[in-house]
Amino acid sequence: MSTPHPLGIHSPDQSKLEGVDPRFLIRGLLHARDQTLKAFHEIRGILKEGMTEKEASKGAARVLLELGSKKQWHRTHIRFGTGTTLSFNEPTKSSPNLNLHDPVYFDLGPVWTDPETGVEYEGDYGDTFVMGENPEAQHCADSARLLFQKAKARHHAHPARGSELYGFLNEEARALGYILREDVSGHRIGDFPHHRFTKMNLSETSFIPSESLWVLEVQILDPRGRFGAFFEDIL
Ligand SMILES: [Fe+2]
To answer: Is residue 6 part of a domain?
Structure first.
């Protein structure tokens, strides 16, 4: 007989895709999330005007190491200015300098080891903010966060397939005057590496995803292409 899934899921396909280490605990994953959020704020604190995206990424690596994360399940993505319209997967053509009033997003994927059990938990957190004042870019950043919160609340109240969740985000983004990037579409999270179970996107799930084992990603674009905003966290 197989080990019962910690979240009590019964569908064999879903259980396989939502696989975790037998020692995995949701609170371990949430602790990794909190550590990642702490790192996010520390990295934000080291940004300086004129710095390049590459320099900021090097600084981020230092902060993560100092906080105790020795590896990352995905590398750090930092984007400035019009670079915020690019997805974390898109290669940057340049490493632009940070200008005052630029929007900035970080996407962090550090691994945190639980000292008691040795289980390696994946962190994944992304958010956008503005250096200085830029009301339009700030509104876009706030909207990405709001869209995430709306989708999460909807999922908790009316659990739905990932495809429905992204359909909802698409409509809500349009209502706010933004364009949703459909290729930024969420994924599994868990103990490292979740890739041994699946690399499926959240938007592709044909079942109701368990809320703590998936990351919801939202990236929206200014219709004039001047900037974008990214937000991601555990569903
Ligand atoms: Fe991420």
So the answer is: no
Residue 4 lies in a domain: no
Q: CB-based contacts of 149: which residues, under 8 Å, 6+ apart?
A: none
In angstroms, what is the span from residue 175 Cα to ligand 1's centroid? 26
Q: Tell me the mean pLDDT in the region 207-214.
A: 92
Which domain does 56 fall in, by range? Answer: 12-234
The pLDDT value recorded for residue 2 is: 41
Residue 28 lies in a domain: yes
CATH number assigned to the domain comprising residue 59: 3.90.230.10
Gap between the Cα atoms of 127 and 40, Å rounded: 9
Let me know: does 97 contact 50? Beta carbons within 8 Å.
yes
Instruction: Work out how many domains the chain is built from and give that number.
Output: 1
Average pLDDT taken over every residue of the chain: 94
**C-alpha 232 – ligand 1 centre gap (Å):** 7
Instruction: State in Å: Cα 5 to ligand 1 middle.
Output: 25
Per-residue confidence (pLDDT) for residue 12, from 0 to 100: 66
CA dihedral 213, 106, 219, 98 (to 10 degrees): 180
0.90 surpassed by pTM: yes
In this prediction, residues 50-79 reach a mean pLDDT of 97
The per-residue pLDDT for range 13-28, each reduced to its tens digit, is 898 999 999 999 999 9
Residue 3 lies in a domain: no
Query: What residues does the ion ligand 1 have nearby, CB within 5 Å?
Result: 107, 109, 124
